[in-house]
Write a structure and sequence with these properties.
By secondary structure, the protein is an alpha+beta fold. Helices cover about 30% and strands about 30% of the residues. It has one domain. The protein has nine helices and twelve strands. Strands 3-4-5-2-1-8-11-10 form an eight-stranded mixed β-sheet. A hairpin with a 5-residue loop joins strand 10 and strand 11. It comes from Flavobacterium crocinum. This is Lipoprotein. Keywords: Signal.
């Protein structure tokens, strides 16, 4: 299966229902680290694996265990990318080093996808999910937003900061765009589609955590990691609910 076809189909599954999205960040002592977004659509495969398999035709007869970089994908779509604006091409270039791993089995009712990249400084991740929505502009990419049409594009600007003493995750909402979407007749349909999906944040730090501004944060035994679960509806409609600060022990 061609990379773009596989990616588009994977993203299409993600726009359906009962998916868990997990945003992972691991920061090392020197400030470098790893960022990833995981999508687990196994619940959907459990409910509708046969129908999904029939849509994929011959590809459904074999399990998929695929790993590729966006750089490879962009090479496959270079003609389409050449027609994009310089601004859009610059945005796509930010995604070149992302590695996409997909595991799908209709028989095992399994569907897992991960987009991951390394970073030298967490500040490099500013608005990375919004940037990924540029994929929709690729030819034939109506469903090719990262992990679903619209995922990442929740009408906010997301930023991360870390200085060794404090970590901050902050999304600033574009209220005008959000108001326009709520007027859209498809908004209620989208809300229904994601009603049973969750957005989970899992962050790992090199230092022990003193406190977190979100009272729902769960700590690891060593107090160096936190997990916070939100509804996906909040991620899309109230992205500032996912804002929080982490302070570390000295």
């Amino acid at each position: 299966m061609k990379l773009y076809k596989l990616l588009s189909f994977s993203f299409l599954i993600a726009t359906l229902t009962s998916c868990t999205f997990t945003e992972n960040i691991t920061i090392n002592e020197n400030g470098t680290g790893k960022f990833s977004v995981d999508m687990d659509g196994s619940a959907l495969m459990e409910m509708a694996g046969d129908q999904i398999g029939s849509q994929m035709g011959a590809d459904a007869k074999k399990d998929i265990d695929s790993t590729f970089t966006f750089k490879q994908l962009f090479e496959e779509k270079k003609d389409s990318i050449a027609k994009m604006t310089p601004e859009a091409q610059k945005e796509l270039k930010k995604l070149e080093n992302f590695v996409v791993t997909t595991k799908m089995s209709a028989e095992k009712k399994q569907f897992l996808m991960t987009m991951a990249t390394d970073f030298k400084n967490v500040n490099e991740l500013q608005d990375i999910l919004q940037t990924a929505s540029t994929l929709q502009k690729l030819e034939g990419g109506a469903n090719a937003g990262p992990l679903g049409s619209g995922f990442g594009n929740n009408n906010s600007k997301l930023s991360y900061t870390y200085d060794g003493k404090k970590f901050t995750r902050k999304a600033v909402i574009d209220k005008q765009k959000l108001a326009e979407i709520k007027k859209d007749s498809t908004a209620d349909m989208s809300k229904m589609m994601f009603a049973s999906s969750n957005y989970v944040i899992k962050y790992n730090f090199p230092k022990k955590i003193k406190k977190v501004s979100n009272p729902n944060a769960l700590f690891s035994d060593d107090r160096k990691s936190i997990t916070i679960q939100y509804s996906f509806t909040d991620y899309m409609e109230n992205p500032d609910k996912l804002n929080f600060d982490v302070e570390f022990e000295k």
